[in-house]
Amino acid sequence: MFYDEALETMTHETRQQLQLNRLRETVRYAMERVPFYRKRFEEAGLDAVAFDQLEDIQKLPFTRKSDLRENYPFGLFAVKQEEVARIHASSGTSGKATVVGYTQEDLDDWAGAVARGLVMAGAKRTDLLHNAYGYGLFTGGLGLHAGAEKLGMTVVPVSGGNTDRQITLIEDFKPAGICGTPSYVLRLAERMEERGINPRTTGLRYGIFGAEPWSEEMRRTLEEKLNITALDIYGLSEIMGPGVAIECPAQQGLHIMDDLFITEVIDPSTGEPLPEGMVGELVFTSLKKKALPIIRYRTGDLASITRETCACGRTTTRMSRITGRTDDMMIIRGVNVFPSEIERVLLKQDGVTPHYQIHLVKRHGLDAIELHVELEEQTQQEAVMRTVCEAIKSECLISIEMICHPQYGVSRSEGKAERIVDRRTETSDKEPV
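-> structure tokens emitted (433 positions)
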């Protein structure tokens, strides 16, 4: 089923021409309205007519998160404040918040993209959607809400938290779909089991999960516990919010909204473009945004892309699921490792729940890992510790110290799961296993 079949199945050549036309307009618009981009482009000797083919986008300088912070709050906006219909912002926990704005036209485009994505995921206009994403300055809740309403769905705007109340609403309202962070929806399923409710009997058909990294092993856990099809959604506020890309039930990559964005994959070290199929850093250029046009934004997310036609019949560019982030990479005694790699190995093991934390600590002046793991009841701790440590050493090439906790011994989150805890200011002489 398609939301806009002509748009979603257009030929590669037609789509490229559409993107090229919109790229020229975006460059012209940004030069006229955003002093930051005007200065950058003039320094590079560029103007809008300099683009004869999409590959010419590589002439443009990158935009980074630091650019948004240095121009806080509204320095990169292209319209006056009275034209801005809504503002979102990051939490700012690692520095100044990144502030983004939307005109009404931007909001309409965003809602349309999410509506298109929901149909890709298998949603129907007649469905009821339980929305457990947080509402507020975070883009997740309002982004999914507006797209679902655009499609004509009935939306239950639950937001995060109040777990028992959410379970009651799921039981009473019988939603077809649920969306939220995968770690929190897993918590909902666990709480159902604690209350003697079988989460497989709720009537849910599909779940749309994002806002935090999650592995194929986590997908299988969610699908088994809730009897659903678990689908990935991707977005970030600097680009738009949720709905930049989403999986279809084929689960062979996330379909990118190519009419709204140009996607590149670059070597994160050199900035040079990488060919299709190779994992690198995702870079996005917006093609229609009015309040905050964004050009060659380095996301820090690592993935690959393909332009092969999907089994669902769509010809849009697809991105792989995120394999990690450039700023999440840990270097443990000379070995590069991402949290997603540890999760993939961990969740293959019997007797381990999907709840864990990676604690970064110091051992004799070097970075090391304490892996805090939660065990199911009646699990033999020593056997699991030996198996997990050996598997991580074999597949991730690092040694870890494993700390076992009983069920519910690892803290739960009502939003994004806290997977990495940095304790490197502490001191210890323990050696990893």
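Residues 198 and 345 are 28 Å apart (CA to CA).
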